[in-house]
Amino acid sequence: KMWGTSLVGFGSYHYKYASGHEGDAGLIGFSPRKQNLTIYIAPGFDEYGDLLKKLGKYSTGKSCLYIKKLEDVDQSVLRELVQKAFDHMVRTNT
Question: Which of 3, 19, 47, 63 is the 20 to 30 Å CA partner of 28?
Answer without folding.
Answer: 19
